[in-house]
Amino acid sequence: MRQITSQWNHFGRHKGVALVTVLLIVFLATVAATAMVSRQFMDVRHTTNIINVEQGYIALFAWEELAKRTLLMDTNNVDSFTRQDTWAMVDSINIDNQMMKTRLLSVIPKVGEFTVLEVQIEDLQGRFNLNNLAISGTSIHADRFARLLTLRGLPPELSSQTIDWVDADGSRVAADGADDDVYLTLDPPYLAANRQMTSASELMHLYNLRELSEEVGARRNQVGAMYGSIQNEGQPGVDIALTALPEETGINVNTVASPLVLQMIVPDLSDENARELYREISNRGRRNPYESVDEFLSDSRVNGQNKKNISERLVVSSDYFMLKIEAGNGRMKIYLNSILHRTGQGAGRTVQVIQRSFTKWGEI
């Protein structure tokens, strides 16, 4: 009897071990299966995201090509360019929002799953080119930039510091300027660029904009608003005035970016007259642009000023444009900012992309 009981107990112990083993195997198999399914799901999502991003880039480049072709549609009217040209057909003009949507949005095709949500083509020669400050032999650019700073209540030394940033001599242009000797004392230290700006955002590296304080923070916001990285609440685009282009450019009086640019061009132009003139320029029809700078100067609000000084480096045609695209497919949004350069004449005109970024709206 004892022998039977002992054998039964021994069998029971083996049965318990087998059960635990089976449970362990089932557990491990479940964990492995869950891990494989989870990994497979992540791989599928990862692959889907890669495909979406690649498809998005293809879509952006396709729309960029469409924009380039659109800019070439005005080759028969090469003497003057306005916001009423094909590249900038607008539904309406809003004085407080010069970054206007174009009718091109209604004809841009869908690419894959991506649809354009917003598109803008802006004439960058409606702004003041900061790299003009590197041009020696003329004071008109420095005078206009200094006037712009005064209009916005910014310290005048920013003008000297900007010139020191873009010129190549490595020495200060004035006592209130800043070059390597100043920037090397900062923490962390760095050198002045001493070359042309590739983006107007380089202004944020100037000595008078580096200090961390409430006053300097407000100053940085004002400067940022002038090249588009910061939008003033309730008045987006009203301060747009600055850009950075790779060569000396004149300001196109047919496409001035804001009333502020007009006040920079015309000394003592009041806020009211600047806004009124900007509205009128924006609403000029395709068949009624300024055909010459003299026609702009004949306006009663401009007439009476020193026309020789005002007319210097003003133009009625443009070669540099900013394309901004926002697109989405319901799961993600993608962005493209391209600077387009139009060169040549007539049928020989071409448009090249000279700079791109894939960040959200703003200056490159």
Can you walk me through this structure?
The protein is of the alpha/beta class. It folds into two domains: 1-127 and 246-364, no CATH class; 136-239, Orthogonal Bundle (Ribonucleotide Reductase Protein R1, domain 1). The chain has helices spanning 2-72, 140-151, 157-166, 180-183, 214-227, 259-265, 271-282, 293-297, 307-311, and strands spanning 115-123, 128-129, 242-243, 251-252, 314-315, 320-328, 333-343, 350-357. Strand 6 and strand 7 form a beta hairpin. Helix 2 (140-151) packs across helix 6 (259-265) and helix 6 (259-265) crosses helix 7. Mean pLDDT is 80; it is low at 90-103 and 231-236.
What's the short version?
By secondary structure, the protein is an alpha/beta fold.
Question: Taking strands numbered 1, 2, ... along the chain, how are they ordered across the largest sheet?
Answer: 1-6-7-8
Question: How many domains in all?
Answer: 2
Tell me what portion of residues adopts beta-strand conformation. Answer: 5-15%
Rounded mean pLDDT is 80
Helix content: 25-40%
Specify the overall morphology.
elongated
Overall SS class: alpha/beta
As a whole number of angstroms, the C-alpha radius of gyration is 31 Å
Largest sheet: 4 strands, antiparallel
The arrangement of helices and strands along the chain is: HEEHHHHEEHHHHEEEE
Number of helices: 9
| Beginning-to-end CA distance, first to last residue | 94 Å
What ranges have pLDDT less than 50 throughout 5 or more consecutive residues?
Answer: 90-103, 231-236
Count the E strands.
Answer: 8
